[in-house]
Amino acid sequence: MLWNRNATQTLSVLSAALFCAIAAGCKHEAPAAQAAGQAMPVKVAQVAINPVPRTDTYVATIKSRRSATLQPQVDGNITRINVKSGDIVKAGQIIMQIDPLKQQATVQSQIGTQAQKKAVYDYNTIEYDRQSKLYQAGVVSRDVYDQAKQAYENSKADYDSSAALTNTQKEQLAYYQIRAPFNGIVGDIPVHLGDYVSPTTLLTTIDENADLEAYIYIPTERATQVRTGLPVELLDTDGTLLAKSTISFLSPQVDNGLQSILAKAEIPRSAEMLRHSQLVRARVTWNTEPSPVVPVLAVSLIGGQTFVYVAEPKGTGFVAHQVAVTLGETVGNNYPVISGLKPADRVIISGLQFLQEGAPVQPLG
Hints:
- By secondary structure, the protein is an alpha+beta fold.
- The protein has 3 helices and 21 strands.
- Strands 2-11-14-13-12-15 form a 6-stranded antiparallel barrel. Strands 3-10-8-5 form a 4-stranded antiparallel β-sheet, with no helix packed on it.
- The two termini are 76 Å apart.
- The relative contact order is 0.19.
């Protein structure tokens, strides 16, 4: 009887303790449930309608209007290279020299020949003048006079021909010096001192880094839209703006290989970052139309897809709802919305990392 009474008391104490523990647990869970339903304050921005340019971006090549490929007009070995790649040269500056010794010898030989013919010509000139006077005085016959005249004319023609040949050989000698055709920058120099070169050998290039143009190849499906005067923005690979221009030329023909139309855009001289043969991105603006836009801060990229959270009404409050969107290229601090949102939608622009689908939110702003 004593054991039963003690057991009964023990069970009563354990039951009371268990009840208290359950009650205490219930009291701790209630605030957690209440906290889970508390709305998170977030900044929102309503989808706005702004003017948005409709653009396409193409690869473009920068080219100079003045670019020359230098090749020799004579054969020989290079005896002097006065410049290196990247040097700035002036018009007429000697860049290279080809061994001129053989041509110099030819010129000297021709000068000697010309001097001989000049001596004959001078003698026949004097003789013709003398025979002419004697013939007029009746001292010599007409036959003697005619022979003197013929000798004079032959020697004159021979001398003139020799003088012309001498000038030609002297001009040929000038070809052994390679000069810059205009002010510019020296390109790559693939030849070396002592190399044998011919008129088919590439010596170097000279490019004037001014009066540049962007060569843009527009697909033929845009043929009805492309026209002179369209705005063009030149960008680097990171999207940084390098220069602004407009289309100034359109080819009347289609490039059969590329099935595209060549368009040119003149580049302002202030665009010093651009160089001849540089590849850039050319963004052509076709037109500007009103379009819904969202702030860049509202966009998240998940698995290659862009999403935004919108504050969606639910009951007496709002919840976060994730929406997949299709966007265009950034315009300032906004993305044009191609699909996925309506102008009345309110997108969330703060606390995106803490949001999840259906979470209660309190829109601010």
